[in-house]
Amino acid sequence: MIELKASDLHLKSGFPPIFRMEDLRLHVADNMKPLQGKEISSFIRILLGKELFEELSQGREIDFAYSLDNGERFRMDAFLSMGSPSLSVRHIKSAIPTPSQLGIPWALRKLVMSTTGLIIVTGPTGSGKSTTLASLIEEINLHRNVHIITLEDPIEYVFHSKKALVNQREIGKDSKTFAQALNKVLRQDPDVIMIGEMRDLETISLAVTAAETGHLVMATLHTRDASSSIERIVDVFPSGQQEQIKAELSNTLLGICCQKLLPKSGGGRVLATEMLVGTNAVRNRIRTGGARHLRNIILTTQSEGMYSFEQNLAQLVKEKLISYETALSNATDVKDLNRFLEVV
Prior knowledge:
Elements: E1 8-11, E2 18-20, E3 26-28, H1 37-48, H2 50-57, E4 62-67, E5 73-81, E6 84-92, H3 99-102, H4 106-111, E7 117-122, H5 129-143, E8 147-152, E9 165-170, H6 178-185, E10 192-195, H7 201-212, E11 216-221, H8 226-236, H9 242-252, E12 253-263, E13 269-277, H10 280-287, H11 294-300, H12 309-318, H13 324-330, H14 334-342
Parallel strand pairs: 7-11, 7-12, 8-9, 8-10, 10-11
Antiparallel strand pairs: 1-2, 1-6, 2-3, 4-5, 5-6, 12-13
Helix pairs in contact: 1-2, 6-7, 7-9, 9-10, 12-14
């Protein structure tokens, strides 16, 4: 997997190993025989141990990380497919990429130097959200004298305390749930809290509260753009609490970075992003329930570092980093994309 420079490996009974390569496509290892269910089960049992393998056999999906002796790390997810154990593996590069290497927006890099507030990184599965957060945490680790606590499921990148003190807590091992960990984290004297994923009402509520009480909170969501991120957070709450969460969110939100990983012209992958910054106009829209109008603010406030996916896609096409076809297939508003491509 490492030699092939594959990002992911999939093991499924009746198929040879399947790799996801840098072009984002799946490639079957035709030079290998199809794997038998017993072979995959034995391999997963070795990785998980008897107790967790029994939980898998009873229908529980198991997320975990695995390290080789040489330090290479992998994020793994074991699950049942038609009753047979299957495994998805993602390679985690040992070196944490810098924000400039990833193409993280300058506005987001500026926001992580804040002392309080909420930063959200969103995007579909496999869009590099964990890597973006890791890069930003390492940036803080290098430049700020603070206490960072990460809550992850599982731990992917391993941080070594530099200017900052970093404590990494793995859900399922160091704490039972994100909500339980968040309930206790404020007693551990953190300055910065990184939450691997805001999954439910309790986690979102505790994250916002932590940001309100003077902490910098960084978290991820599975949403497509800035507007849907706000709507997702608000809609999680019962109708009687939605006005309150809008007010709290408007007071704490620093910014939202939405991202996708796209095939790069000539090979590899490139990050495409949309950036929303929590200006007074944005906070006002959130407070009054006008999240659907945030796109207009994004399109007209570039001086604050805001831009839409279509603006970024057009820029990537102009720089010949992606093809027009790739931009077209990932644009939400094709008319906007074409309009930005016409701008000299």
